[in-house]
Amino acid sequence: MPPATPPGRPGNTDGYSMILDAIDTGVYRPGDRLVESELAERFGVSRTPIREALQRLETQSLLVRDGRSLIVASLDHNQMAELYVVRGELEGLAARLAARNATEEEVRLLREMVEADNALKEHPAALSRANRRFHKQIHLASHNRFLVQQLDLVHRSMALMATTSLAVVGRGAIAQEEHDRIVSAIEARDGDAADAALRAHISVAFTTRLKQEAARREAEN
Fold this sequence. Notes:
With 221 residues, the protein is mainly α. It is 67% helix and 5% strand. It has nine helices and three strands. It has a three-stranded antiparallel sheet with strand order 1-3-2. Helix 4 runs parallel beside helix 8. The termini are far apart.
């Protein structure tokens, strides 16, 4: 039987965050149908919070209707491109503000994350989770609550992509080098360099994902 709560959320009874976390971690993927009764059983909660959560997720366009069913949404090419544009702008700003506002302890934590994550270069799923933690830490280090809120929305939508760009051979090592440059700029308190490094990181990730999509389309033809 599946665990009562998703990994990393022990004791959680918030239907919205549990379903969102399950989408984010790939338990539910684009195109999967979500059934209220099955979700309630999986997460060990009543159907009322699940029903409310599904309505909220549909309002946020993370779920879409397929007849009477709700399925996890997917992003088409244009939506993905639009998302990466916004992500690059907001992430770059977060890095710039982190270079200015992060405490010494926060900067030290970012460096420790990069060093620890180097062991995950050949493990895309684990590195993807670590990547989310790393970016979230930069968001928090910006010390701008409104920016953090907007980036949370962007990263929720990122969960609608069926694969991670880190699964491409060699991408893990390159991404880690990019993370190192971002942290080095933040350590130097160089906002311009931190902004540029993070924007470049997002740009490479987008290019990698476009190549993934092109390969997938070719394989289907």
